[in-house]
């Protein structure tokens, strides 16, 4: 055995590594945020506002694209790709604040995985519905009650049950992508942004003629409420919820139980701190 004295563990100080490292550290903090902030109950108002703004932006683009397509002013491809691009942008600019759920089915899935507290689920869902409604009120103010305000409806020649089955499958895959790329209950970073946004665009490109590709009860709620037509809304409530439940089951098979402390720390840029504290 060596008699050499043990050297004290040196703690890395970002300021001593120069401005380049500091800049990188700041960029990573902006992208991944702080898990402490995400869990701080005093900042719940900030997270709820983030969900309100994000869901408003998503539904504005998704329903607005559907409305303009119905008027013959943009192509179907543009109408279905635009929401995917918007989700990519939302995850990048505010995913670290609220997790960029934007979807009651996603909040439910994160809670079922044990990555998101159940006490916060009702607030997220209510504010997502409010954001979707505000977006559709804006669309009605600008365009009037045209094109069902971009409502998701079974396509011509397809029944509600066909649309339901399509929504179940599409949402299962969407939530699987989210659970596989998110850090605990946060959609953060370029990988999540590209994965989730790309999937939404891809799903819309091939499946929009069947069901409208909602995959989101809030996205369908806004147009239904403001236009006053809830005829097919049950499809876009039951389908995404069933899909989220299936995706949680698949995640259990693929990755085991959720609520993993290491994955949370890694997503917040604090993996070394977590390991040193064990």
At the first level of CATH, what is the class? Mainly Alpha
Major beta sheet, specifics?
A: none
Uncertain runs are 21-29, 262-278
| CATH topology type | Glycerol uptake facilitator protein
Helix content: 55-70%
Tell me, rounded to a whole number, the average pLDDT: 84
Radius of gyration: 21 Å
Residues in β-strands, percent: under 5%
CATH superfamily: Glycerol uptake facilitator protein
Strand/helix succession? HHHHHHHHHHHH
Structural class by helix and strand composition: mainly alpha
Total number of domains: 1
Q: What is the topology?
A:
Blueprint: H1 19-32, H2 35-39, H3 44-70, H4 76-98, H5 104-112, H6 121-143, H7 160-181, H8 189-211, H9 217-227, H10 233-255, H11 261-267, H12 271-276
Helix pairs in contact: 3-4, 3-6, 3-9, 4-8, 5-6, 5-7, 5-10, 6-9, 7-8, 7-10, 9-10
Report what the structure shows.
There is one protein chain. The protein is mainly α and 278 residues long. It has a single domain (29-276), classed as Glycerol uptake facilitator protein (Up-down Bundle). The protein has helices spanning 19-32, 35-39, 44-70, 76-98, 104-112, 121-143, 160-181, 189-211, 217-227, 233-255, 261-267, 271-276. The chain starts with 18 loop residues before the first helix and ends with a helix. The relative contact order is 0.16. The model is unreliable at 21-29 and 262-278 (pLDDT under 50).
């Amino acid at each position: 055995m060596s008699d050499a004295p043990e050297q004290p563990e040196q703690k890395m100080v970002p300021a001593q590594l120069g401005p380049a490292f500091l800049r990188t550290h700041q960029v990573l903090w902006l992208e991944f945020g702080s898990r402490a902030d995400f869990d701080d109950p005093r900042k719940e108002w900030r997270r709820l506002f983030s969900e309100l703004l994000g869901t408003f932006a998503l539904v504005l683009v998704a329903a607005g694209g559907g409305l303009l397509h119905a008027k013959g002013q943009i192509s179907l491809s543009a109408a279905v790709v635009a929401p995917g691009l918007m989700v990519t942008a939302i995850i990048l600019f505010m995913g670290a604040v609220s997790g960029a759920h934007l979807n009651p089915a996603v909040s439910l899935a994160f809670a079922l995985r044990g990555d998101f507290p159940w006490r916060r689920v009702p607030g997220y869902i209510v504010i997502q519905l409010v954001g979707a409604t505000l977006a559709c009120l804006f669309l009605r103010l600008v365009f009037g009650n045209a094109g069902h305000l971009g409502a998701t409806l079974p396509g011509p020649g397809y029944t509600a049950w066909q649309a339901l089955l399509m929504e179940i499958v599409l949402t299962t895959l969407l939530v699987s992508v989210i659970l596989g790329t998110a850090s605990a209950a946060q959609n953060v970073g370029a990988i999540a942004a590209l994965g989730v946004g790309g999937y939404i665009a891809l799903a819309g490109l091939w499946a929009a003629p069947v069901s409208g590709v909602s995959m989101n009860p809030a996205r369908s709620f806004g147009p239904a409420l403001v236009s006053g037509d809830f005829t097919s809304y049950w499809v876009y409530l039951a389908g995404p919820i069933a899909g989220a439940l299936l995706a949680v089951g698949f995640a259990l098979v693929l990755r085991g139980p959720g609520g993993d402390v290491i994955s949370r720390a890694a997503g917040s840029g604090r993996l070394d701190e977590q390991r040193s504290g064990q």
